[in-house]
Structure formats: C-alpha cells, structure tokens
Amino acid sequence: MANGGPVQHGFPHLETVRASINALYKRLSYDTVHTFATSVAPADVAFCDTDDLHLGAQRVARELVRHYHLPDARMVVGFREMSHAASVELAAGPEYFVELNDRFRTHRRDIGAALAHEVMHVYLHRLDLSFPGTRDNEILTDTATTYLGAGWLLLDAYREDSASSQKLGYLTPEEFGYVLAKRALVFAEDPSVWFTSPQAYTAYEKGMAEARRDEQQPPLTAAGWAGRRRYARDRRHAQDNGAGSRPGVPGVPYAFTPDGRGPLRVSFPCPTCQQRIRVPVRGRVRARCGLCRTVLECDT
Ligand SMILES: [Zn+2]
Ligand SMILES: [Zn+2]
Fold first, then answer.
1. Which one, out of 88, 130, 161, 201, has a CA that is 20 to 30 A from the CA of 122?
2. DSSP-H helix ranges across 148-224
3. Are residues 87 and 76 in contact, defined by beta-carbon separation less than 8 angstroms?
4. pTM of the model as a whole
5. Where is this region: Disordered (predicted)?
6. How far is the CA of 158 from the centre of ligand 2 (A)?
C-alpha cells in the first residue's frame, strides 16, 4: 500500500475501477457479492490510543478476516519502519504476515483502513483473482475492498488541512467515493453517516454524481435530453451506413453492432457491473443483466 505524496484527485483510474467491479462479479457471482450486503461496522474496527497496540491490531485484523469470510486465515500484524504504508506476505497460509508502517503506532485510528486493504490482498490471492501489473492490481484491491464493504475506512482515512494531508490506497478520494456509491446503490446503504473526515464526505458526493451518470446513459430510459439526441443521431447513422461504420467512439458507452442479416442491435455497459448488454434496436426494451441481475429499462 502506497504512502505519502501529493493527493491526486478526479477519476484517472475509472476504466480499471470499472473493470475491477466487473471482474469481481464474474469471479464471485451475484450470490457471493450479495453475502457482503452489510459493511464493516465502525464499532468493530474502532481503535483508540489507549488500546494496546498489538492486541488492538490483531483484534481489528480478526474482524476483517471475519468480514471477508476467511474462516481459517490468521493475520500476524507487526510494525516497522518502511517507505510504504503497509504490506502483506502472500504465502500459502493459513498464517499471513502483515507489516504496518511505524507511523501507525501513533495513528491508530487508521489501522483499520490499512488492514482492510492488506487483508483484501489475501482474499484476492485465495480467489486467484489478480490484474497484471502492480498499478492495476492495487486498483483491483482497493475497488474490491470498497465494493465488499470495508473501503469506507480507506476513504475516511483521507484528511486534508492547511498543514498536512493524508490518504491511503491507490484510488483517488473521488474514485473511492464512486465505488462506495456503486455499492450504496446496490445495497441501499448510506456510508456517509460513518465518515469522520469532512473531505471524505465531499469526495463521496462527487463519486455518487459520477455513479449516477452511469445510470443516465443512453439507451437507458433515464438518459438525459442531450444524450438521447446524440443517441438518435448515432442510430440514424448506423441505420443508414451499416452498424459498425463508426465503431468505438471515445466517451460514448454504447455501440451499434451488426447481427448477421438481422436487425440492428446496440450494446452498452451494465451500469451496475459493467458487463456488456446487447439488445435489439426496436424502441422500448426491458433487459436483465445476466451477471448482476439488474433490470434495465431501455429506449433503443
Ligand atoms: Zn496493496
Ligand atoms: Zn450487470
């Protein structure tokens, strides 16, 4: 887990974040994702400065192991001077060694956030789910941590004032907010009540706006006027010139596809899980995502 440096903002990793959510649904299935309907409760990972450092860290690690349904995994948490915030040794188990930066000795309230990320590494390791390259794999880890109910801790560890700033993890605060919002929309949860950091709240609101935008893209019926107008123009173009005559327009999530000699079809990402949905172009269509079971009202 990375540490320090200026805090990056916005949505620079959104493509990998979306691929991570899709990979989670594919690897875990709808049923397993829905066993994570309840987030880690603040009281279960609370750590105050009067708690014993090592006993407290072990207790929080155990709570995260329980949350991720890793019954036989045992975390051994140690502290040392290091350039990173934290790291975990991914061995065969069932014992895993987690090292936390020495600074957590005096920043105990963020130990839960650091462990949420490191224990997720163990979870993904056991699932044999990874992305190639450190950067993408860390984004997958942060996204999975957040989507499965422990990532609000990472966003809440983001604090900025005139003197200092602190952020944990590889996602920007807004991206943590986005994944948290995606989760909130699926599980009807409001994580913002747990935030102690005002900056976390702002980032969550920005992430929620971005998550809502996913649900307002044509051909979904919730699309706005400008999107619908662009969609109608692109559809006319596809009908006149053949589907695929204007493939892969950047920033346009839908694509018209040829379907043999059959009618025109349109494909677009499921707003919940990013799985590609394909429906015929014939006005009002109701589709159901096969991966996450979201019912999608479309006007094609
Ligand atoms: Zn990591
Ligand atoms: Zn879906």
1. 201
2. 152-156, 173-187, 198-214
3. no
4. 0.94
5. 231-256
6. 30
